[in-house]
Design a protein that fits this description.
This protein has 257 residues and is an alpha/beta fold. It folds into 2 domains: 2-210, P-loop containing nucleotide triphosphate hydrolases (Rossmann fold), CATH 3.40.50.300; 213-257, no CATH class. It is built from 8 helices and 10 strands. The strands form 2 sheets. A 6-stranded mixed β-sheet has the order 6-7-8-3-9-10, sandwiched between helices. Strands 2-1-4-5 form a 4-stranded antiparallel β-sheet, covered by helices on one side. The longest helix has 15 residues, at 134-148. It starts with a strand and ends with a helix.
């Protein structure tokens, strides 16, 4: 299964945010979409999720060699600060979610079994959502996509504001789920990307650039990425790809050691 981003362009007035972004994302991997604030990560996710229309280009889902346009039921979009009904308890909300999505749910575990699986506090299950921390709200979001089992999971800065314990719990759950899904994890925090993800894709100057897998664990990798993202690639006099710049820098460092 593949998610195909094909030459996607998007402008807001005179601001060209996406300038022909292209990449193929495959199942059995967690991808980090890395970029500076304002680079267009959320815009790209909104286009994939059909929340915004691209100016040109296509977003396709390929299964068994056949490609088609992605539809709403194919994906779940997890946002950093979810809007949930504060007047319901966690248990009431989850039951309501199951009832309204009955034809899409193939998960047969009980509510408490689901809550237990993500270490959801036994007492908080019956508290009003308005009392929940951001981390607990995000755990509810995770239960939603666990129930739906979507082909594509988009996660837009989901761990940025969470405490370290909740971050570790969610990381563990994502690693358990990756074999059955295409997971795109948007962040501007490089440490989260290198800790959690199998492949790192940089969004810079409106385009997507895949970085070599073997370079992710290089001791100087993080600093070099920071340096590269700090450059103004618009001033480049050639068409050197970002991933080639990274490889050249790191290979030079290897020779110097």
């Amino acid at each position: 299964m593949k998610l195909i981003i094909e030459d996607v362009k998007k402008s807001f007035g005179v601001n060209d945010v996406l300038k022909g972004a292209s990449h193929i994302f495959e199942s059995r991997k967690i991808y980090a979409l890395l970029g500076r604030n304002g680079s267009g990560k959320t815009t790209l996710f909104d286009i994939i999720a059909n929340k915004k229309d691209q100016d040109s280009g296509r977003v396709l889902l390929e299964e068994n060699g056949q490609s088609r346009e992605i539809v709403q039921n194919d994906l779940f979009y997890m946002v950093a600060n979810p809007l949930l009904p504060n007047f319901l308890t966690g248990r009431e909300f989850l039951q309501f979610f199951i009832d309204v999505n009955l034809d899409r749910i193939f998960e047969h575990r009980s509510l408490d079994e689901l809550f237990d699986w993500i270490d959801f506090d036994k007492f908080e299950r019956d508290y009003l959502i308005q009392t929940y921390s951001l981390g607990t709200r995000n755990k509810l979001q995770m239960l939603m996509f666990i129930l739906l089992k979507p082909k594509v999971i988009l996660m837009d800065e989901p761990l940025t504001s969470l405490d370290v314990v909740v971050q570790l719990q969610i990381k563990k759950l994502l690693k358990e789920m990756e074999k059955d899904h295409i997971i795109l994890f948007s962040t501007h925090i490089l440490q989260l990307a290198t800790d959690l993800c199998d492949e790192l894709v940089v969004l810079s100057n409106g385009k997507l650039h895949a970085l070599p897998d073997e370079k992710l664990k290089h001791p100087n990798f993080e600093q070099e990425i920071i340096d590269i993202l700090s450059r103004d690639l618009n001033d480049s006099k050639d068409n050197t790809k970002l991933e080639d710049i990274v490889v050249d820098i790191l290979e030079k460092e290897d020779q110097d050691v």
